[in-house]
Amino acid sequence: MKSLLSLLFATFLSFFSTNAQELENSLLWKISGNDLEKPSYLFGTIHITCDATLNDKVKKALDETSQVVLEIDMDDPSLQAKMISGIYMKDEKKIEDLVSKEDFEAINTLLTKHAGVSLGIVQNMKPFFLTAMLYPKLLDCQMQSFEQELIKVAQAQNEEILGLETIEDQLQVFDNIPYEDQVADLLRSAKDDLEYDRTTFATMLELYNTENITQMEVMMDDDTSKLSDHQDILLVNRNKKWISRISELSKKQATFYGVGAGHLAGENGVILLLRKAGYTVTAVK
């Protein structure tokens, strides 16, 4: 349960990006130069998928590094408790305070049908987390996760698993975005019974499988979600904070970084931000 909640949370945070700039089609990037003794690697994940098999170049990069760093430390034993404490709206807000009775019932029907839970029981949760409960329904298969596969490798190699940010950092994102904007996307999903979400995610998955990170960014930039109005909070600010953390960790030892592929491309993507910081970042073919 802890891992599922974390994955669904991270998935949404990786769905938005801005300022497309052409980069090579690759999910795996080598970080070198800037006085690094050994190169590190940056890998773009997609947090829910039908097949999370790691290919040979990713396995090789894992063999050449000595620790795995994800967006958050997903093997932290306190992670679930921290998440649960941060999923509720502040000031005793409830969904019924944000929508009409008709819209409340539409959301209730959606959650009952696809998540098996009545909105009346969970309506004090931040709307985003109700949306995240529906993510497994975007797939027509048993959900798999690249993060879980990376964790398995790290554990098998007796390597440490760390995070670029804390779960508190991620939870803060949805304290900073208005609940009204969060619930707007949930209501859209309710009104078309996930049709838009399924179509959009299927297209995103196709782009991911071709490793076309630039086109993924273009698609996300065109997204009509209300949350896309808050991309500084969702992506840009987080990416910028990660650069100093990546620099710090990479100087100590060769590190394998696994982050949502939506963080890679663009003017404020991790690849170009690392290059601006003086690193050589090259696609691994």
From TrEMBL:
It comes from the Bacteria. Coiled coil: none annotated. Keywords: Signal. Residues 1-20 form the signal peptide. The keyword Cell cycle does not apply. The keyword NADP does not apply. PANTHER family: CYTOPLASMIC PROTEIN, CYTOPLASMIC PROTEIN-RELATED. This is TraB/GumN family protein. It comes from Winogradskyella immobilis. The lineage of its organism: Bacteria, Pseudomonadati, Bacteroidota, Flavobacteriia, Flavobacteriales.
